[in-house]
Design a protein that fits this description.
Elements: E1 3-7, H1 11-23, E2 27-31, H2 34-44, E3 48-52, H3 60-70, E4 76-80, H4 85-93, E5 98-101, H5 106-119, H6 140-152, E6 159-162, H7 169-178, E7 187-191, H8 200-205, H9 221-224, E8 229-233, H10 240-252, E9 254-255, E10 264-265, E11 269-274, H11 278-283, H12 289-295, E12 298-301, H13 312-322, H14 334-341, H15 348-362, H16 393-411, H17 422-441, H18 446-453, H19 457-463
Parallel strand pairs: 1-2, 1-3, 3-4, 4-5, 6-11, 6-12, 7-8, 8-11
Antiparallel strand pairs: 9-10
Helix pairs in contact: 2-3, 4-6, 13-15, 17-18, 18-19
Length: 467
């Protein structure tokens, strides 16, 4: 099997990765810093490196060139819990073969290691990249998006972006283009659902001029995007005839302008986006299976806001920085952020941005408070959007999972502990917090609290701290 060098300053993570990989038959060596790993690298001769980004002393990304110089054929798998688009792109630029976002599970590690070992040291370098733009977030869901963008951008492959309305699909498309070798040329965006069916062929492929009729030539969207990228938004809503024409272009790399007698070659990278389930549309006969196969060579799923609630403070700060109503020191209060978290956002990030813009104007240059939020938009069933009940549960559940991850990390951060204590300790802490919150909601009424908790009043009384 292979020799694998794990570089991570968290002993618990290094130990668990080592156990996993040794069980698979690999030989493993652990290092807690880049300096220690570089010193031991020549003697160990690793076939693969698992490298954390944040390390004491020198950071992992800056050390990648030195590792590649020492063991040029050993691929590098980067690990991070603090990823963003810029970090993801830098890992690819530095020559990393894979990008793992903490927390990861055993299956993800095994798959990443397998892919990296299969490729060997052939990970190429991506072009230099501009700043990440409007894609903001540090949640695991967004870190996976950043990693996918970093890998997709230099490849030139068609990309299919899926996700609900307002989740940032166009921002992701622009990030892919801006980090690609085509960034010096145009990114042309079009919403296929908004095209006039009678003029769609001319819009997409253009028309030749007719001097006798006094009609000038008109370049279509594909011609305007030649050498660059064409972003086809809402591709799932394209009419059947449009789907057929798109397939022909993707197959042949040629367009036939209206009135032309011969096709013209175009060099266009296509990025498509949809909020629909295209596989279901194929099964229902609403979308061409062959076109779907052409579009989803590389797929990236954009998460709804409910799956990235940890990103809300960063998103609000980002929007405030660019809001037309924002003063130079305008900030959001903790109560404002709590109110944002407690609301369902069916329009996702786009709806949140609009609400922050309004709140910034209402605050008149001061600190944003809950009363500055505009009224919640109606959702399709006609109900209001506040998430004080089950509608807000997914976001609240995600925040709870994040808190549990942080608690476990703090408890197991390299400190040897007796076995068998963690579950009991967690239940003690969590149960006390749960009972305390419910009692606060019921103004200390134990009978009402017991009903909400599903406990007998005597059982609840036994769980309360003794005076």
């Amino acid at each position: 099997m292979s020799r694998i060098l794990i570089v991570d300053d968290e002993p618990a993570i290094g130990w668990s990765l080592g156990e996993l990989l040794e069980d698979l038959g690999h030989t493993v060596k652990l290092a807690s810093s880049a300096e220690e790993a570089l010193d031991g690298c020549p003697a160990f001769g690793p076939d693969l490196l698992l490298l954390d980004v944040r390390l004491p002393g020198r950071d992992g990304l800056s050390a990648i060139p030195d590792f590649r110089a020492l063991v040029p054929r050993a691929p590098v798998v980067v690990m991070t819990a603090f990823g963003d688009l810029d970090t993801a792109v830098k890992t690819v630029e530095a020559g990393a073969a894979e990008y793992l976002v903490k927390p990861f599970d055993s299956a993800q590690v095994i798959a990443a290691v397998g892919r990296a070992l299969a490729r060997g040291g052939s990970g190429g370098e991506a072009p230099a990249a501009p700043p990440p733009g409007g894609l903001v977030g540090g949640s695991p869901a967004m870190q996976r998006v950043f990693a996918s963008i970093a890998l997709a951008a230099p490849s030139g492959l068609p990309v299919l972006l899926s996700g609900p309305t307002g989740s940032g699909k166009e921002l992701a498309a622009r990030a892919i283009h801006d980090h690609s070798p085509r960034r010096a040329r145009s990114l042309v965006a079009v919403n296929l659902a908004a095209l006039d069916a009678a003029l769609v062929e001319e819009e997409l492929f253009g028309r030749v001029g007719d001097a006798a009729a006094g009609r000038p030539a008109r370049p279509g969207l594909f011609a305007r995007a030649d050498g660059g990228t064409l972003f086809l938004d809402e591709v799932g809503d394209a009419a059947p005839e449009v789907q057929a024409r798109l397939l022909r272009v993707l197959d042949a790399g040629e367009i036939l302008p209206v009135g032309a007698s011969a096709p013209e070659r175009v060099d266009v990278r296509v990025i498509a986006a949809t909020h629909r389930d295209l596989a279901a549309d194929v099964a229902a006969g609403r979308f061409r299976a062959d076109l779907l196969h052409r579009l989803r060579v590389f797929t990236i799923g954009m998460p709804p806001l409910a799956e990235r609630a940890d990103d809300i403070p960063a998103l609000v700060a980002w929007f405030l920085a660019g809001s037309p109503g924002c003063g130079p020191v305008q900030t959001a209060s903790a109560e404002f952020l709590d109110a944002v978290r407690a609301r369902a956002w069916p329009g996702n990030v786009r709806e949140l941005k609009a609400a922050v813009d309004v709140a910034a104007v209402m605050a008149r240059g001061g600190t944003l408070r809950p009363e500055h939020l505009p009224a919640a938009l109606a959702v399709p069933d006609g109900t209001a959007g506040p998430a004080t009940g089950p509608a807000g549960a997914p976001a609240a559940d995600e925040r709870l999972r994040g808190a549990v991850r942080a608690w476990v990390m703090a408890r197991l951060d390299g400190s040897p502990s007796p076995e068998g204590w963690l579950h009991e300790e967690f239940l003690k802490v969590a149960e006390a917090a749960l009972i305390g919150e419910v009692l606060a909601r019921t103004d200390g009424n134990r009978t009402a609290a017991a009903r909400i908790l599903g406990l007998d009043r005597s059982t609840l009384r036994g769980k309360l701290p003794r005076p």
